[in-house]
Design goal:
6 helices, Rossmann fold, alpha/beta, 10 strands
């Protein structure tokens, strides 16, 4: 199943680089069809380095620039940086309200979010705690808070009326329900992902791994590249 590109979409993630790593091909594809894409980056990524000469303050600035460069390549309309400390993200009512405000302001038809239930990626890695927290706050903001005027009533005074998100795309679930064919935009995804130079120690090896993970042979024997999602219609 290839979901129809929405008119407006929002990507809610934890760190600079999450959009490109998790769903950069889908974002690139949607942007080419005219989808208006907004990023919400909840943390500043200031702990994403083992370099003893690096400082959290400098790293946060570097990663913000990398994220902007990557988004520009994909055609993203706007990035909203929340600047929460990396590694300390918690799904609080305050943070939920901030996300609800952005959902009501930009009124996306679809939201791409991280999976709050995913602790492991098979036997190869542990999911970052910030990813789980970002997924939780995104889902709780979508339902019921963004659509219910009784939640955060002070937002009504700012002119932010309730908004119902139609579809949620959960990235890298254990059991995808839909796939997006990103074959035609895979090189764009790669180039955008490689903008995050502070996070990629081995660019050539990383590219090889990304190609391998994305590629399948379809029923016609063709090599195609895809991104998988759990898609839920909640509208």
């Amino acid at each position: 199943m290839a979901p129809t590109p929405p008119k407006r979409a929002m990507v809610i993630v934890a760190h600079p680089d999450d959009p490109e790593f998790f769903c950069g091909g889908t974002v690139a594809l949607w942007c080419t069809t005219g989808t208006e894409v907004i990023y919400l980056i909840l943390t500043n990524g200031n702990k994403g380095s083992d370099d003893p000469t690096q400082t959290p303050e400098t790293l946060a600035k570097i990663r913000q620039k990398e994220q902007q460069a990557a988004a520009n390549l994909l055609g993203v309309k706007e990035i909203i940086f929340f600047d929460e400390p990396d590694g300390e993200l918690i799904s609080t009512l305050k943070l939920r309200k901030q996300v609800v405000a952005q959902i009501r302001k930009h009124r996306p038809d679809a939201v791409i979010a991280l999976d709050p239930t995913r602790f492991f990626f098979e036997n190869r890695s542990i999911n970052h705690a910030d990813h789980r927290a970002a997924g939780e706050v995104a889902i709780d903001a979508i339902y019921p808070a963004a659509r219910n005027r009784m939640y955060h009533p002070e937002l009504l005074e700012e002119g932010l009326e309730p908004h119902t998100v139609k579809d949620i795309f959960i990235v890298e679930p254990e059991q995808p329900t839909a796939y997006v064919d990103i074959t035609d935009v895979f090189e764009t995804k790669l180039n955008a992902t490689l903008c995050h130079t502070s996070q990629i120690a081995d660019p050539e090896g990383s590219v090889e791994r990304w190609r391998k993970r994305a590629t399948i042979t379809d029923e016609y024997g063709r090599q195609v590249m895809r991104e998988g999602f759990r898609v839920m219609n909640v509208g």
